[in-house]
User: Fold this.
Amino acid sequence: MAEPSSTPAQPGTAGEVLDPQRAFAELGALVVGETPLSQVLARVAELTRACVPGADEVSVTLVEDGNARTTAFTGRLAATLDERQYDGGFGPCLDAAQNGQTVRVDDTSGDETYPDFAAVAARQGVRSTVSVGMPMPQRTVGGINVYRFGDPPLDEDALHLLQTFAGYAAVAVANHSLYASAVSLSVNLQAAMQSRAVIEQAKGVLVASLRCTPEEAFQHLVRQSQHANRKLRDLATEVVARAAEG
Assistant:
């Protein structure tokens, strides 16, 4: 079984008790991009355990390129039970994360839908589980999983609160994706502008040395690039560097 590559809860949060509204306010104030996504989701897991009555252990599952992985957890048992489901390709947290649904196992001692997972969870002292998907428009990004050691299973109020946390987590993941896309676009635009600048400089050098037009200078660079099988920008950089040296 693969070791979970995820973020555990910070020490000292096990006994934390927070008003849900304060928890939501804290999550809303976390700016994804300034705060790494892993830290945001770790806090989601911590606050879920602190605010949802009966949530003894919590983990957060993300789905990327069709693959699920645990990115945050409040206890090693939660991460281990998640990973067992990923390895087997079947289980409540996997179904919730991939389909955006709420999946409950109210009694691990006799569950017929996920008998293998339930038996393993029961041996670890888990009496019930709930996994809530984190759906976004047109796709699902993962889910939040709650493991409970005592009876009874989560009631409807606790379940509603858990679903609210899943909504906040989904927004965090979506914002992180948008931020990463914006950063990538900015980097690509900057590189394109730098390439254009050096090519224009190289054209100027060739216009002076070959006594040709700017278009003829550019075509000269293109032919040299194709002949040498090198990037146009790299060739232009060399032309400019040689002119500076000479």
Q: What stands out?
A: The chain has eight helices and six strands. The two ends are 62 Å apart (CA to CA).
